[in-house]
# Entry
Amino acid sequence: MSEEKLHEMISELQERLRQGKIGRREFLRYASLLGLSLGAAEALASCAPQPTPEPTPTVGAAPQEPTATPAPGEPTPPPAVVEAKAGHMLRFNPAVCTGCLMCAVACAEKWATEYFPEETKDVVNLEFSRIRPMRSQYIDVVNVCTYCTLIAWAEGSDKAPCQQVCPEDAIIVVPEGEGKEGFTGMGYMAIDRDKCQGIDLCGRCLEVCEDQFGSGISFDPIEGKSQICTMCGGLPACVDACPEPTALQFVPLMTNGRYFANPPEAYFELMYAKIFGKRRDL
# Structure
């Protein structure tokens, strides 16, 4: 496709977004199909001019005070700083999730650029994603590490099962104040890639996670090293990329401090039964 034709199609999509004929999610999807990265599509969506809604008069309503704007020469207030959060967990709502894969695209682009910028500069490879939307009949399920732990008094350890079985201690917890901002830290797990032996020589973390939960462990397609959700050090990119409010949230842990993970097939059956009021025969 020529650059002129691509520009024309993007302009048409922006105009349809401005007119309200398509939503932001559809715009991002179409832009991605045209070969644009998620970041570029997000920027174009933000640049699309929005119509100014006309105020609806309300009987008896007090007049609205005009919004104060900085006078010429006055500094513009800085944008609100988003702080990394510790002790939180990803939670998805299957009733809202559309399976658009934007969370996986954002995750894949972020981590591929971090580890293999040259090899992946012209592609989006979802194998780099730590979060995996999965599709079944009528239902979409987001599969990601749920930070399960063993029970110390019953199993002799409070580590995650994948940590417990790793022969190289390559699955580590990066404490608050350490790690790379926006990638690791704040008490979330990460992979020490120098220690990880990779899927060809080991794979024990995958085995224990897949046997129980389905799996929240994956391996990068270039070096075959283990991948686990680090919650982006408390600033998860997948949540920011999700176009559906409440479909994917970053929330505090449950009151007992633990999330109980379910394998994807259990989620599929649960959601189907809740939505349609009956179980299905597989």
